[in-house]
User: Fold this.
Amino acid sequence: MKPFLEEDFLLETETAKRLYHDYAKDMPIFDYHCHLTAKEVAEDARFSTITQLWLGDDHYKWRALRANGVDEAYITGDKSDKEKFMKWAETIPELIGNPLYHWTHLELQRVFGIDQILTPETAEEIWEKCNQTIQTGNFSAREIIKQFDVRAICTTDDPVDSLQYHKQIKEDDSFDVQVLPTFRPDGALNIQLDSFTEWVDKLEHTSSIPIQNYQDFLKALESRVDYFHEVGCRLSDHGLDSPFFERVPQERCGYIFKKALNRERLDAREIEQFRTSVLVFLGKLYAAKGWAMQFHIGGLRNTNKKMIEKVGPNTGYDSIADFTYAEDLSGLLNELEKEDSLPKTIFYNLNPRDNYMIATMAGNFQGSTPGKIQFGTAWWFNDQRDGMEDQLKTLANVGVLSRFVGMLTDSRSLLSYTRHEYFRRILCNLIGRWVENGEYPADFNQLGQMVKNISFHNIDRYLAVETMEESGKS
Assistant:
């Protein structure tokens, strides 16, 4: 019987162990999609308790707590930090098979040097030890980032954001980690929401372009793309949770846009047509800038209306959607490809049913850039061992795994960098299994470089961002 979470955790063969320890373990991190804020990095945020770091915005943990029957007062409510932590300690022993069990203990080990198992019996001691570490002078947002050897971070940012904290970090010579914005224009696409006109007002203000019609709207968006590029953005992101492609004349979009500004009701087809037009317009801009474009597809969000009214949106009441979108995705990519305006693109699908569709769709639109169209890492509910293995095996079966751009945290927590370790162990174990089964030669020069590339180099080259390694600072 193996000890829990020992040095060869998840590594089942000698080849896997060698690949991880000799090649993957010490690679730096490029976290190209997350939900950290540039503000907490710019201000080098400090924390009062482990609860703020662990439970403050972690929907994964909130869902587990609810499933374990914990009252909402201990999750998003007004109970004390310590009371909330104790409820997490009560829940953890019940989470066999859940990646939260592994992540929790990896974070305790890697960040706090605590090898104890979190249980109700050890909770008081672990609470005290973590909080003592947090209160030390060198425990801050930047120090955590440096501890994990993070070279670059891409945050997720609204086009109407001023990016003042990104600029502040860029001008700070004492911190040499790249913190770059990502252009996330969901506000521009969600014309069906009551908040759309308010968002247009913000866009008008930040772009200094009066928006009277659809063409003004597009000009204002283009000005924000230009601004984001100046601040270092090389990546966009889109959440697509409903149909998103139907060709439409520009004049038709002008009519739809005017209806929205007048707060007139739009039908489903008009919403889809408008979304198509904006996506195509933005895709061309991204290609011209040399950006990569991300699509996160397939979430069914804010499903529990009673609880959303009680605790607000984006609080862990989301699940996997089951709409089909192969034709939409093909149509959108074709629309951009026919004008040589298809940017580098990364797809993430939430429904694992769509793995092979997404992987094969990527293969339809590859070009002279290695791995131009990417089947992105297992996302959200799928970023656990089975989900990661399924994504990796699907990509290997129908694509080129060695060109994969690898792992990201997709998290609001600074402690989530352990997920890169988790991914790398799973990657090395899968490759090691293939080698020891005689499915690939034991060429460690080739294998080791492949693991290093997937762990860091591929995404570094893909986004063409000058990290410390490229500039000779590492």
The chain has two domains: 48-134, 141-463. Strands lie at 29-31, 150-154, 178-180, 235-240, 292-297, 299-300, 319-320, 344-349, 373-375. The longest helix spans residues 268-289.
